[in-house]
Amino acid sequence: MKVAVTYHEDFGKHGHAVLKNRVIPSFQALKELIEAGKVEVFEPRLTGVQKLVEKIHTPRHLQEVEYSGYYDISLLSVASVVTAAELLAEQKFKRAFAYVGAAGHHASRNGFWGFCYLNDVAAAILRLRDKGWKKFLILDVDPHFGDGTRDIFKYDRDVIHINFDTSTKPRFDTEFNNYDYGLGLCKDQEFLAALDEALQPAYEFEMMIVIFGHDSHMRDYGGFSLSFDAYPPLAHKVKEYAGERPLLWVLSGGSEPEVAKRVIPDIIKVLSED
Questions:
Q1: N or C: which end of the chain has fewer CB within 10 A?
Q2: With helix as H, strand as E and coil as C, how does 119-138 read?
Q3: Burial of 196 (0-12, 13-18, 19+ CB in 10 A)
Q4: Is 139 helix (H, G, I), strand (E, B) or coil?
Q5: Which domains does the chain have, with CATH numbers?
Q6: Is the torsion defined by CA of 166, 18, 96, 108 positive or negative?
Q7: Do residues 121 and 209 make contact, with C-beta atoms less than 8 angstroms apart?
């Protein structure tokens, strides 16, 4: 099964200083999958993306992102996620992976931090809702809590928001479908066991979105302590849970090129399998 990958060389040239060095090496590591016909690469489409972020974020927020110097690369990153979501919605692919130059899950309506400036997943959901899609499941496995995405969708019952993070207590809001798994400094076994628990309920959704940060690896900067062995099972479990429904992976945190150029191809390889 062919996987759509959205990518732009500017992510590795002009992306956030902490994130950009992983982009080109990990994309180059996809060469074998591309040559085997398992991956098809698309450039992000910017048409209408600025209007989406203007609907999500306040004018003050957007002005502050401009001042940061990362507005253009953040908008291109949003376009990458939106383009990948559209390819899935058009039923051209069942699975997609979106590269970014700046992340999105810490970008709320009126604030940002942690290398995130514009909320890419929120923009993708808004675009698909304009096309008639309604219900989404977001699984955020970046070890830092996705507070920006929660700010935007906290009271939206049609967006199931599951977070894995480094806190130590679970927090479940069944009324509004917000489920947080505090895993502390977890290793592979605890992480995968929590994933099994999180994906046990038969949630209703039309598309599944995974916010993926490889800062969860023990050699990267996040709070989890995962080995390389954790990522293929993660991809298998998520793929099986999504079933026939479209599945979108969105790159989030992580800075280590040696980690990225192994785990990203490992995940995409699993997604390409029938």
A1: C
A2: CHHHHHHHHHHHCCCCCEEE
A3: exposed
A4: strand
A5: 3-271 (3.40.800.20)
A6: positive
A7: yes
